[in-house]
Amino acid sequence: MDPPEELTTLENGLSVKALIAPLRLSLDGGVTHTLTLDAWMTIRIQKGEAAAVANPPWNFWSGQQTSLGIWLALRAALAEQLKTIARDQFANLFTHRVLLSGRFGFDPGAAWNALDVGFSPNEQGIQVASSVAVELLAAVGVQRFRPRIAGDRQSFVYATWGGRLAPSVAAPAVCEAIGVPPTQRFLARVVSRGSYAALGHSTPIRGESLE
């Protein structure tokens, strides 16, 4: 409902760089519900002291971009996009793309283009057609629904589930802690180009379905 609050100081007193600062969202004007997004940040011990640092693979962006700046630009782009889309087309919102020069990196369409051309459009300031809805909603979704990350943190496995589940149950289903048939497993990889990265297209893992 309102622009998010950039948290450059955590409740425990640790400072966070604006690049990876958590974002606190108000869902109803701040009356009752807020949601903090910080999947791209974690706390680790460095040189004997606790520090707020990047959390691969979810910190795809770099350079002069910040989590708040990316969110605000995407939020404005989505608001403009929704004015041009008929309500009966909202179900296909993920397929509608706009040119963006800054993004979180969740939409694989932009990563695929970077892979094809052999460099990161971000580093050159080149706009890439991206799904604003995917970028924003995936940033919210990954806050609770975390896949199973590989040791190199450059790929991960996740699964779908075959019935209606409460969020508290669906979250472990994503990382295969539980199985709700029929389900399908997917492998996703991170596409890196210079100091920027993004998700590539997921591929089904054949022969390991729980159907």
Written overview of the protein:
This protein is α+β, with helices and mostly antiparallel strands. It has a domain at 5-54. The chain is 23% helix and 24% strand. It is built from five helices and twelve strands. Strands 8, 9, 10, 11 and 12 form a five-stranded antiparallel β-sheet that branches. Strand 4 and strand 5 form a beta hairpin. Helix 1 crosses helix 4 (132-141). The chain is globular and about 45 Å long. 26% of the residues are buried.
Q: Please write the string of helix (H) and strand (E) elements.
A: EEEEEHEHHEHEEHEEE
Strand content: 15-25%
**Alpha plus pi helix count:** 5
Number of strands: 12
Distance between the termini: 40 Å
The best one-word shape is globular
How many strands, what sense, and barrel or not for the largest sheet?
5 strands, antiparallel
Coarse structural class: alpha+beta
Compute the CA-based radius of gyration.
18 Å
Bin the helical content.
10-25%
Mean pLDDT: 87
Q: Show unreliable segments.
A: none
